[in-house]
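Hey,

The postdoc asked me to send both predictions to you directly instead of through the lab channel. I've kept everything plain text so nothing gets mangled by the mail client. Protein one:
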Amino acid sequence: MSLRVRFDPEFIGEQIGQLCFEESRTVQELDSYLAGAAYAVCLSLGKEKPWKQKDFVSIGLSIVRSGTKKFLDLTEKNILINSVPQENDMNHMNNHAGK
């Protein structure tokens, strides 16, 4: 089966980064998924549009960069959220500090 579709390499990478974060994947797993996606996209393009071969490196890098950025942004946000005392934590500490 062959389909003609438009695709956004950055969107592909971001979705992989998001899914890897949500599934608690490691950075090594993220790298494997992003590399696999880049190879798959470029192999498909090579079959359908061999003249695009000169763009394969930039397409692959776009997938990898956007996916890595999304994964790291989500990881950083998660770390910050979990490192800042929440309101309930502060109330609990204040209640026990006065005793």
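Protein two:
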Amino acid sequence: MSTTVPSERLAEFLWERHANPWSGWTRVFAFPVLVYAILTRRKRLLVAAVAAIAINPVVLPQPDDARAWTSDVVQAERYWVDHGKHGALLRSLDVATLPVTVGALYAAYRRKPRATAVLTALSMALKFAFVNALVRHYEAETATEAGAESPSAEGPPSSAETDDGTAP
């Protein structure tokens, strides 16, 4: 019998499935689709984009292995949330993304295609910068933790390494 509360089990369920590379990439592409649906007033496309974002981590299975870059992003995001949101660069990128994203949505609502395109691209660039910094922060933190536990530990393998630990 599990001692975790239902909300913890649900969170675990969602994190595990969100680590699926398909989850990460479909969510990346769902944002421009969402913005386009707002810009062009395509209600079915809007509903489909919102539904895809909402059900994404529920319908996709837990990945067989979590060695994809998007899986690293989810592991890093979970670590950051669970261990307190540390790091000035990470917080700055996270905070900067919100008004740009809202601006993209507002520009689409106001039917300003150029502003919509620029702000959508900027929002996505900021998000990619954030998740890249997040993964680097996670790798540094877990390497430090592993080093504290075992003096000979080298930390987690990078996503650029192959199964045998060598670089491709």
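Summary for protein two, as requested: The radius of gyration is 18 Å.

Thanks,
C.
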